[in-house]
Amino acid sequence: MAASKRQNEGSDSTASKRARLNKGHSRATDAPAQGAEAFDQAKNTSAADSIKGTSKRSEGRYGSTTQNASEKSETFLNGQTSREAHAKQKALAQGRKAAKPHADSIARSKKIWERLRRKSHVPKQERDELVTELFQIISGRVKDFVFKHDSVRVIQCALKYATPDQRKQITTELKGSYRELAESKYAKFLIAKMVVGDDESRDAVVEEFYGHVKRLIRHPEASWIVDDIYRTIATKHQKAIMLREWYGPEFVIFGKSQTGNTSRDEQVTGVLSDILAEHPEKRNPIMSHLHEMTNQLVQKKTTGFTILHDALLQYFLNCKPGSPEVTEFFSMLRDDEEGDIYKNLAFTKSGSRLLCLCLAHGNSKDRRGILKFFKTHIKLLAGDQYGHSVLLTAYEVVDDTVMTSKTIFPELLSKDLEIEAREQELLAQTEHLTARIPLLYLMSPEAPKWLLGNETAALISEVREIRKETSKKDPETRRIELVKNIAQPLLDLITHQVRHLAQSTFGCQFITEVVFGCAGVGDVQGALGAIADLATEAPEEKEQQEETDKLLAMPAVGRMLKALVQGGRFNKTTNSIQLIDPPLKFDELLFQKIRSKGGDEELVAWANGPNSFVIVAMSEAENFSMKEELMGVLRRNMGKLDGQNRGAAIILEKIGSGGRQSGGKEDKSLVDDAEAKHTGADKDKTEKKRILARLFLLYILLFYFPVRNCPYLHRHILIVLPDIGQSPPVNGACADMQSPTDYSNGHRPRLQYIDLAFDNESLDDSARDLVYRIQPKWRDSPGKLEIVKFTDGITNTLLKISNRIPGLSEAEIDRDSVLLRAYGNHTEIIIDRDREARSHALCAERGLAPPLLARFKNGLLYRFIIGQVCTPRDLISEPTWRAVAKRLGEWHARLPIAAVAEEEKKEASSGANGHTPSGSLASRRPVPNIWSVMQKWVTALPCDTPKKEARKELLQKELDRSFHDLDNERGPGSSGFVFGHCDLLSANVIMLPTDCASSKAGDSMQVSFIDYEYATPCPAAFDIANHFAEWGGYDCDYNMLPTRSTRRQFLQDYLRSYKAHSDVPVADNMLDVLCDEVDRYRGMPGFYWGVWALIQATISEIDFDYASYAEVRLGEYYAWRAEESGSRAQQGIEMPLRERRWAEE
Predict the structure, then answer these.
(1) What pTM did the predictor assign?
(2) Domains in the chain, please, with CATH?
(3) Which SUPFAM superfamilies match (predicted)?
(4) Concatenated DSSP letters for 769-817?
């Protein structure tokens, strides 16, 4: 109906245009007659008049008199000047617009849109009124707006500011027109906005696509919308129905029959092998139809669709190996002479698997033809979560290792760059979770489990099975030949950059794997010498010595040295060390270096230090030629060994057994003394464990069965637990935390780790698999598992998983609910996820965070906090911001920087993920801190174009300038730092119910904070200024920012709470100091989130305009700079709204 109606309107419009054109033609036919008559008159004019006219023109040109503008001749047409003609045409156009249906409404709505689109310049109250008026205009007439290029943006604007009911109103009015909208050049964007975050709208739109996917995927406009919905938000059930339409007409009919019936109980599969197993007689028509559909898109060079990649994979998986179907399939791919299809396939999940299978099944010519298209895209492949598997498959199946090396390694190793630039590129790759895989994969016949994900490992196993039939070369021979071409550049990197690599866990893993993998192939002695020199370095300056000590105290460094001393990898099958051939003899090298540095005393210091297990490894090494000498030194200094140190305790046990065998009186006396000391330590530990077990049981009882009348006792347990020996786990929250005295080599209880990854494409199934690992009873529970997706975040995916058992109240269900937070795409570039987990656990120990339940490959599971998420409007209400001030003061006081530094000392002098700050930033301690984090982000900015490189240089200068101007160690905390949340936006503030067990008497409202991924040491003024900036929400509505008086009241409450929870005295003038500091830091949140958004714009898959957000936030920073320097006032520019609001009393 909608289509026929629009056709009729189009016919009427065409007819009216034709009528107007005829009228215009009749007028135009009169004009030549008038022109001819004028021409005849001019021809009959006398020569004298002509001469007279000429003289007048000459006089006008050369004479001294000035001709007025009004006396200038104007062009006449049909008796009108050009100005009059244009005015008349404009009036006619306006008249035509006014004659159209709903002209006044459309004109008014466009004016409202013009006003609303200037977000930060419209006061909140005015915006609400405009949105209300806009919905009054469009209600019942949405279809009249959406098919016009200039008015569809009005509906998009209405959708943006709409309430859930108003969104539903729009989607209801458009129901039945979704396909037509998708095919519209302009309205297709409306579809994209409708389906995001609204499951009901998504289901309605997808159901209208059923039965039409074949046509829509070939439509120039609709194809991208269909594929985006399929790739990002469609459920597994909906994807299956859409994909089945590629299999033939009967599946198109089936798809139409599914409209309005998408029950999850009906098992619909898109896996072609399952369909063919059930109906083998349909194989030929299905395969023929699928080949025809895919071939059409390949020939049209529209090969970027995920649904096409899925269809191609299904086709190839059901081709018989060696059959004409496979040959024809390879021929179809080769028809794309530019290789676009290969490049598109490599970067999707199904496409990369298909490409790997093609490499495995193909002959040498096919493999060479595929790899040649990636010759300039190797780094891009290496860093992609799917693309890297293509490189690994090439390692596994291509017999011509010379060709493989020439194709892959020059770009992977950046051989075309100068030495310094090349090493910086390689360092960045070693610290990237995915990009390091192609570098380390060849270092062992079987890649370690920590290097490959489950999906990649399964794919490699599949490729290896196929390789048995299609490749001739021995796999180990192929691997060694490839290692020879990559070994020396990696060993040279270790030799030159060992300190930088040792500052991160990834770097230490890189060193260990490369040394083991390249032994016997490259020259490892230079790398081993550099490692030994780093371990025994003795700087002259005190600060440098402290830095070295912190570096060597890192558990990752201890594990690396221990592994190198052992001389090989641990084999779980034989439960022994599998030695490298030829032997490394690093144990002898390190022993000699230690002895030459400080003699026996230095060996004892190592045995008592954080790397005591390195000495233990030496004492247990099979081929260590200096073992007797080492044991002799330890025996002579037995009394100096610390039994509290785990490694030293093991050494004492070894020496003790040896002393008894010797029978010497002196040795026996020493052993008895050591054993007595060790036994006393064991007794102390046993007593501590007994106390902790009782306290832990009491805490669990209080947590699950809150005693509302004893809030003091509940709070007292939270405070006491962390201070007694080793802190016990709280519902898993602290399983990865331990006391500051127990850091040796990372030998500590671990938080439960689930070896699974969350998959956004199958959200519900993936969430169930993860939660069942920590709640196995939920599998057989009578309740229904409910999964709710929160849409407030712009970094991660957040789900609430509840077991809705019949008979339980909402509060009881919420008490057992679990939050699942899956990390955003490539966010490890800007967030240290290991540090985030430690920060979360540390806060949970002190009752400032919900218990952490488990980690999985790309996220966390933790307890749900019962309460209501704040909105920006809630945040500006006085009860809420006063509660936030009190909670923030408690947060900063109860997590003093000294305690955090104990947790973070493993990071040593590196920033997050091992980044070392440059320039004067490097001297700021402790690290990481807010300055080193910003330095890391600026370093991570892309600079692949001159414009981006210039921007990066400018931002680096601004960061150095800001550090110099602002960092003055004023304010609360240690050395001017507190442990800051650094992301206190409204969605991370939870308003607790008034009857919450943790509520304090006399408090009208309590809040809690969530999401600690950006938590790091920072000035208190930064954390507070950043929170104030978030009062405006994502829309950056500066009218909502706190005024000067509100800020002062906030800081009064903050300091009152800080003093109540801190043992450190606070200066009397701290309120004035903090007010001044917060004012000085008001521009830095704009810089912080602006740089963050620039990175997110290149890595995130979340539907958010990061690029525009970056410009807005950086604009805040530069506006503050202009205000501080006075340049804005000097230039006479109006003060920006944000600065005006900040200056208000």
Answers:
(1) 0.55
(2) 103-209 (no CATH), 752-866 (3.30.200.20), 885-901+920-994+1004-1083 (3.90.1200.10)
(3) ARM repeat, Protein kinase-like (PK-like)
(4) HHHHHH-GGGGG-SSEEEEEEE---SSSEEEEEEEE-TT--HHHHHHT-
